[in-house]
Amino acid sequence: MIKLIIFDLDDVFTIGSKESYFKCYHETLVELGIHLEAEEEKRRILAKWSMPHREELRELLKEKPELLDRACKMYEEKLFGNTFVSSLSLIKGTVEMLQRLSKKYVLSVATGLHPKILRERVMPKFNIPQVFSQIISTYDIEDVEKHKPHPFMVEEILRKQKVLPKEAIMVGDAKGDVLMARVAGVTPVVVLTGHLSREEAEELNATYIIDDVTKLEDVLAKLK
Q1: What is the pLDDT of residue 50?
Q2: Who's near 14: CB < 8 A, 6+ residues apart?
Q3: Domain 4-15+88-223 top-level CATH class
Q4: By the 8 A CB rule, do 6 and 110 touch?
Q5: Are 172 and 8 in contact (CB under 8 A)?
Q6: Cβ neighbourhood burial of 151 (10 Å; 0-12, 13-18, 19+)
Q7: pTM (2 decimals)?
Q8: Does residue 60 contact residue 41 with C-beta atoms inside 8 Å?
Q9: Distance, first Cα to last Cα, the chain
């Protein structure tokens, strides 16, 4: 019996997060006068995906580490300003679904999104209801070795909510979400609104694959 649903947030509830992050990183590099070929820039960003932006920028600027502090400040102006949030849209039906699910399940979030952005910009903009018993962000974890796909975030949620792994599912859009869930013993559910195509999700042997998060109730009905 499922008691707990753990959600990633970017490109699960919202669309456009991936592109928005890329835009913030690219504009930061341009302002610093750093040029990387498009494929190399993408490769470096994805190499540190889901880690705090300082680690992403460290990878992007590995030939120019002296620019890291300046780059972080510039990036944060874009992330906490309008560059990131203005490009996002909410998947239709998400709010109503969360309200329904909150009456039957414990809901939580394990995300790479900065908690300040989540609480002060994203949730208010889209009127996402306060239905989450726990929200844990990559930015809450000092040890980078415990970031996705390490199971630490899922295990912390399970521990605090007093739920067994077999009683939980993890809903995400990326390879790291699937691996994190599986190592923690939690059933992964992939949404196709983010990083993974259906073929890629199948290659990861994702237990359930859905077009978007609003189809989650169909999965829950099967799990019953």
Answers
A1: 81
A2: 88, 89, 90, 91, 122, 126
A3: alpha beta
A4: yes
A5: yes
A6: buried
A7: 0.89
A8: yes
A9: 6
